[in-house]
Amino acid sequence: MAADSPVPLASASDMAAGQFADLVRDYSADALAQLMIEATRQCEGIAGRRLAPFTGVPESHRATGIDPDELSGSGAMPMDLAGTVGQSYANALGSTGDQVRHVWLSEYAPRYPEMWTYSNLQITLIRSYGGSQTMTAASLVGAENDSGHVWFTLGAYLPLGSLIRVVYDGGYSTVPADLGRACKLLAASLVLGEIDPAGTQYAHDRGVLTAQAEAILCNYKHL
What we know:
31% of the residues lie in helices and 17% in strands.
């Protein structure tokens, strides 16, 4: 089984550089690195979303929700060559007026979208009418950092009820400072849970640290 090895929201050196250094002084380098990975995953669990950089996340979506105000099948507007060819293909297959144009990825930046990065977006359409297609970058606009929105350009043949399979990389390529703080707080709480589970030996309250982290992470939850 492959090891879980994300880029942590706060590094081992971050943890060892501040007032928590004494708390983790007996940890080996490998153990401290693993602690920060565990704290990162806890941050994501509390927020209910991915925050650390990720690779190859798969998602599936059902093609629904046509905007009635959108020009879905108009043949009277100018298009680039790719759009013209795509619409010609859709016209040949029929049912061009009820094509889905949008999908929203589950993972996006809830705050600080300028620090978020998407890459390697791959989309495969499995049409409800039969057949499949791998979309090219020329047929897509997005994904947008602040919403996860991907727009299929005019001419894409995507009937209602089709299956949209997505694979992509993303996450905070620059970690917001408050997320780094939340990661360190949860790491400290994990350490206290190991050395003083009942909180009686050193009179440290793990709950205070966890509550501080949760107060930060509530701003990163799905609305």
